Amino acid sequence: MTVPEAIEYEKGKGSIDVTPNHLIKVRESIYPNKKGFELATPVTFTRTEKQVFDLEAEYFYVPQDSLVKVILYEWSQQTNSNQNLLEEKSEKELDKMYTAFQKKFEYLRKELTKRLGEPTQIEINLNSGQPNYRDGIKWLNNNGLNAYLFMFGNNQNEYRQIRLAIYKE
User: Where on the phi/psi map is residue 129: left (φ > 0), alpha (ψ -120 to 50), or beta?
Assistant: First the structure.
């Protein structure tokens, strides 16, 4: 995929271009970059997904040929400008949000497994009893297409976020 193709795809989804003016790097723990590509500031888009999530997509690419090397998706709780951020959520609202994130995580896990085969690494900490957790699943595929899906959570401050990195070595 090239940057122009990514832009066309995102515009077709109704996404808003929020590409920053400063350099952003992707961590080596997410994208190993074994070939040492010099990546430019990612072309970045945001959109609302199913009136539940704010989705941000970052396309990291090599400027010389505009080839995208890694795509990083981030699903966060949808921000509602009418809602007071300090306002406590009801137990029902929290359960609904937690369920939406868990369903999205499981959906992505199933889709990636269908396309890439069984995961090579699974670390699930959701039920560890700790307030903070990070669930992570990696697919390292023989054809070079790899994925890293992870979900962060904090049960004390109602935080949830899902990230997915897709890259080809």
Answer: left
User: Total structural domains in the chain?
Assistant: 1
Instruction: Show the DSSP H helices in the chain as ranges.
Output: 3-12, 91-116
Please say whether the beta carbons of 166 and 149 come within 8 A.
no
Dist CA 143 CA 146 (whole Å): 9
**pLDDT tens profile 142-159:** 888 999 999 998 877 778
| Per-residue confidence (pLDDT) for residue 124, from 0 to 100 | 86
Model pTM score: 0.89
For residue 47, give the nearest of 24, 7, 17 by alpha carbon. 17
For residue 43, the enclosing domain spans 3-168
